Amino acid sequence: MLEGIDSVLISEEDIRVKVKELGKRITHDYEGASPLLVGILKGAGIFMADLVREIRLPVQLDFMSISSYGPDTKSSGAVRIIKDLDESIAGRHVIIVEGIVDTGLTVGYLLRNLGAREPRSLKLCTLLDKPARRIVEVKIDYKGFDIPDHFVVGYGLDYKQSYRNLPFIATLKI
Ligand code: IMP
Ligand code: MG
Q: Using an 8 Å Cβ cutoff, are 38 and 94 in contact?
């Protein structure tokens, strides 16, 4: 086992099965449409890559990179866009793809920000949901797993930029 890893919370196989299931649901819900999936870097990069390959529709991909202003101002929900979308989303069916929803401040901001750009529809897909620490209520349309209030890493999620390449979700020794 890798240095610092406590235990595996969600196995590679469980993730694979769940991602397939989410892809099927999205394929069904958007039948006849061509949704734009917006991945939130860097955390959702790996989830996004696997998810889109389970969607049997002509989708397009775009990415955003954001960072919070820091721990002090985090409760304000102020986040900074580091990399914005490449193209307009006006009139598009948009699905935000996030790795984890914790307080909800990040996706709350994204839903407001992208919602103001007049998409035809806007939904949220997250691999993980940590409802214990929620500050902002957000409607999650597609969810992989609920997890308890533990800091987790792997499958794109980091601790100080490490562990993103683990193929499973694990808790850290702290
Ligand atoms: P929120 O704004 O509090 O919902 O935080 C969402 C962001 O915080 C995610 O996009 C992650 O980057 C990070 N985050 C929250 N919980 C965890 C965790 O358990 N492991 C790794 N990153 C986390
Ligand atoms: Mg992080």
A: yes
